[in-house]
Batch of 2 targets.
Target 1
Amino acid sequence: MVKELRGKTAIVGIGQAGLGKAEGFSEVEILAEAARLAVADAGLKMSDIDGITTASVTAPMWAMPVIEYLGLNTSFIDSTMLGGSSFVAHMLPAIHALRSGQCNAVLVCYGSTQRTSSVNRATIAEVRRSFDPQPYEYPYNPLSPLSTYALAAARHMHEYGTTRDQLTDVVLAARSWAQRNPDALRRQPLSRAEVEESKMISDPLTVADCCLVNDGAGAYVMVRADRAEDLPQKSAYVLGAATHVWGRQGSSLPSLTETAAKVSGERAFEMAGVKPSDIDVAELYDAFSINTILFLEDLGFCPKGEGGRFVSDGMIAPGGDLPVNTNGGGLSCIHPGMYGIFITIEAVRQLRGHRGDGQIDGAELALVHGNGGSLSSQSTAILGAESTLW
Amino acid sequence: MDTGPQTKYFSLLADGHFQIQGCESCGACIFYPRVICPYCGSDRLYWFKPEGSATVYSTTVVRRDREKGGDYNVALVDLVEGPRMMTSIKGIEPDQVKIGMKVEFHSIDTETHDAVYFQPAGNA
């Protein structure tokens, strides 16, 4: 059973490249640089990598060019595309492949140049209308995916009394964390008034509630735990991992105020044998400000409907009881189309104790939660330092 | 079947009919139209004209420059038969649409024939 997989694998290397604007570089080029750094960080050689997981916003056959470019010889390949959560979702298949002996070292990698490439976010949105049609939504011209998150926020406000101020609390907390992260792309001070005066895009969400659009690549390397002991970095052991999907389109989801994170979270916590109150630091995929509130609730950090009140009074900001999105989040750190790899990297850095000004003292248990599509795919992983192994 | 349910749905709209599916096997009403029932897996689905009454589940105003057509409403409504669908509420300012508001069938888009609009109940 899945519980037996607790702590049997670890993330032993991480790398990032092309953060912000990767002018003059292609997606696979910055991906390869992140991969090179992750493999070196793990104390391995590229020839040691015999498993790969990757996904692309634009290229459906993406694993093949990546294998080709890196010169890999892989016995395990997974290129499941679940949107932004993909690189959290890839963890469980990687665990199975490592445990079964199908492979010995898995490289999880992603790169996007959607900020500087001619194939930018607007072009992708246009192409997606024919490649990934949603004929029962597109005729009404929702901003995709923004309007679904706006509809979720509006409904959450209606059902639970969540306020515009509380969404602003999420935005401000993310910025405060970004100011403690030299890698974060938006670090300038941000006031409550500035957020309140931001341009409305799809009510109640303003431009300040939306994640950044940048270039960036990230990679991490997983091996079996016994091998991890011999490698140079402090290992981040994978204690729990689960993914759940209830649907693709916002209009087809059973609820916009409760997501499939409830299921992925329960499964990940069960596998890890820990509970929300044990978690030292949480990295929750904040493509939009409402996400943080929804996932705090669905993952059990607070009761359903209490997320808005939970984030007020600085609870998730630096100095708060539950540090959330300690890299600055998708809202203020980075968001190159799919962000799941970056929350994983941040969690590993926290467990290593390498986060400088943003370090959570004594962080031993980190939760990573990935989201994809329009609240469509939900992937939760729980990572732990060596002290959390049984 | 002559065509898939997606083509059939849009053909019906083009002919001026808004219809959805029901499942003979489990009794569920289904939107969007499918080949099998997502609740029980049965392929015994039939078409019918919904009452046209619905309640707003959520609503947003998409902000757009005036020269490009101005702000517009995007909403999710729960049909009285059960299913939820995306729509746009007409006959009211986009920001005046409220969650919980009762709405009724308004029209099928006269140019594209691919969209079904609702209006506040009792507006007609």
Note: Chain A has a mean pLDDT of 96.
Target 2
Amino acid sequence: MFFPISGAHISPIYLVVVGFLIGILGGFFGVGGSFIAGPALRLVGLDWNFAVGTDLAHIVGKSVVAAKRHRALGNVDLRLGLIMAIGTIAGAEGGAQLIQMLKRAGNVNLVVSIVSIAVYVGISTFMIWESRKTLSSRKGRRQRKGVDHSAFKPVTRSIQRVKIWPVIALPTSGVKAISLWMILLVAFVGGLFSGFLGGGAGYIRMPSMVYVLGIPTHLAVGTDLFEIIISASYGTFSHAIKGNVDILIALVMHTGAAIGAQIGAISTQYFAGPKIRLAFVPLPLIGAAIVIYTMLSGHKL
Amino acid sequence: MKSETAKTLRAFAFELAIYGLLVTGYFFLVLNLLGEWLRQVEVQHRYLYAGLTILLIVGQAVVLESLTTFLIRLLRGRSE
């Protein structure tokens, strides 16, 4: 099929299948899946700038479907999602500025590659430790629906005790009091990595919501997806102005993602929080493997 | 238990087939008609194109979500 905006010839079946697989991951883990979609689009010859912008547009559509399904399951905290969107957009701008600074210094690729490998491996190692420790404890093994135990809970509680004004409550997430600045800080850091490393940075935001803010895993997945709708829309608009979005490719990919995202979202009902977190571990490692491959081979996937 | 799983898988396969047919029709009708017009908008009016990208992807998401929810209800009853 010929896509006139980017001038690319790509099989629509390939796009639907890629969209379907990323949809399942997105619906289940609350991530955009750009670390797979970007290379998958590059693999069929789409220019890097189109791959990034088009992927963001497809993420918006997929997140709408998955977030709607999660909302029906009671897994979306709208108040938290809206606050986080503000921090994420500010952080993404900061990350983009950081990239420009490194570009001027002339060492952007090396710095971004090393930082991303350290972050991806760090997240995976921490989540293996935490989820396994939680699952091996009595509370973790006997987990009831709606209760989300974590071995990191004491640290989360001490973060929640930091009462810098204004302090707000998140009744949907079961958080009685938390400083607004903590939420904005978590979102800003996620946005910073999104602008710095590319993609939606759900691999950082979803674990941060669980471990730093104390949001139950199912709610963190659903709320992250809701937040992605806003931040990815902003990114899509910005890339479209620069001529980096082929909306026709995004629409075709999204037909597969729409059904995959629903399957992923429904599947979260059958898994306890620590099991979802343990299953999340390979995702950042795939991201790290792609960066290492890029560094060693010199080919940008 | 086995018959329940088989029933769910059959319903899912049927749902995918209907969805596949509708999506194929959508490719040929809508995307082919929109393609050239969108390319011209992208070249001549970037801000309008940027707004349209958001509207199209969100619009498609809402329609497809409603369609899949309808198919799920139709084929599997109220259990989902």
Note: Chain B has two helices and no strands.
